[in-house]
């Protein structure tokens, strides 16, 4: 009973005569019990339907059905909202016809795609035009404004090697991309960074230089490649018997750099100098997962030819 009703009943009770008070008191309690029994509460799933028992049956049924539908639609909306938050979205540049200047976006994007495929993760793909960057990319990666960007639970993760680690730590299904041993994980990170920060810049210097400068730059690259060749001695892949973190990071060396070297006209990686590295490249590029997702060799060469092929 509300406070207003209590006050009103109290005023009536006080103003009545002594002989009328017993009957009035009984009437007040009767009305209160009647109000309490007016509503019936029933549990339906995870919500409660309140029914006014004094209303006509067909009206009560309509109201109950309306409340049930409203609760169901609210639950479905929350479920869809949660699914949208939990979805995996890859913003990358993989399928559009690109020039040599945009190939830099394609290499790291392919790393993330291969990691998602390797782990068997379903994801939504959004193709990014690097010549006309979208608001989604600029908001998701405001620091570098580059692809790839992985959106998970509505939160963006940038930088391909960082994304690979995030994928491995977030999804336990499928083969592990990084080794389980802390030491082996640290070494995998070391060699992946060695590829990105040391080998690839040295390769680009050799590809873009000429004459004696190119000869010297080529020798510097080959000195670096000896370290990778030694690391692969006795191994099928960098991580052992399965494709892993360093192998995926080495996409660019196994595919892009070989094509560019042919366009430039230099022998960079040969069987006699780097037997273990050449064996790894052959096994890696012919594995089903990698072979399926690598870009067409001829089309890739065409996109790179204008920048790297020597004329005359």
TrEMBL record:
Q: Which PROSITE patterns match?
A: GST_CTER (PS50405), GST_NTER (PS50404)
Q: EC number(s) on record?
A: 2.5.1.18
Q: Does the keyword Transferase apply?
A: yes
Q: Reaction(s) catalyzed by this protein?
A: RX + glutathione = an S-substituted glutathione + a halide anion + H(+)
Q: Does the keyword Transferase belong to this entry? A: yes
- Which terms in the GO cellular component ontology are assigned? cytoplasm
Under the heading Pfam families, the entry gives: GST_C, GST_N
Q: Which CDD domains match?
A: GST_C_Tau, GST_N_Tau
The UniProt GO MF terms for this protein read: glutathione transferase activity
Which part of the chain is the GST C-terminal domain?
A: 181-312
| Name by which UniProt lists this protein | glutathione transferase
What organism, scientifically named, is this protein from?
A: Dorcoceras hygrometricum
């Amino acid at each position: 009973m509300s406070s207003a009703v209590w006050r009103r009943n109290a005023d009536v009770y006080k103003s009545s005569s002594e002989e009328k008070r017993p009957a009035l008191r009984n009437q007040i309690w009767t009305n209160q019990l009647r109000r309490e029994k007016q509503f019936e509460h029933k549990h339906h799933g995870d919500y409660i339907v309140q029914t006014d028992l004094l209303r006509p049956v067909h009206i009560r049924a309509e109201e109950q059905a309306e409340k049930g539908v409203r609760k169901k639609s609210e639950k479905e909306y929350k479920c869809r909202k949660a699914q949208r938050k939990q979805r995996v979205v890859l913003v990358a540049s993989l399928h559009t016809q690109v020039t040599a200047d945009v190939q830099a976006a394609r290499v790291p994007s392919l790393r993330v795609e291969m990691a998602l495929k390797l782990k068997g993760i379903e994801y939504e793909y959004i193709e990014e035009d690097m010549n006309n960057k979208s608001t989604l990319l600029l908001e998701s990666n405001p620091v570098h404004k580059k692809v790839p960007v992985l959106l998970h639970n509505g939160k963006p993760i940038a930088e391909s090697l960082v994304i690979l680690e995030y994928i491995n730590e977030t999804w336990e299904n499928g083969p592990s991309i990084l080794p389980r041993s802390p030491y082996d994980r640290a070494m995998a990170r070391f060699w992946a960074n060695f590829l990105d920060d040391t080998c690839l810049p040295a390769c680009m210097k050799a590809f873009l230089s000429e004459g004696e400068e190119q000869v010297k730059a080529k020798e510097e690259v080959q000195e670096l490649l000896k370290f990778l060749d030694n690391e692969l001695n006795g191994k099928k892949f960098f991580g052992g018997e399965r494709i892993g973190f360093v192998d995926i990071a080495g996409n660019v060396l196994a595919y892009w750099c070989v094509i560019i070297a042919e366009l430039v006209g230099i022998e960079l990686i040969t069987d006699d100098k780097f037997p273990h590295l050449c064996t790894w490249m052959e096994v890696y590029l012919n594995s089903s997962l990698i072979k399926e997702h690598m870009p067409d060799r001829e089309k890739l060469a065409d996109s790179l030819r204008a920048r790297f092929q020597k004329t005359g």
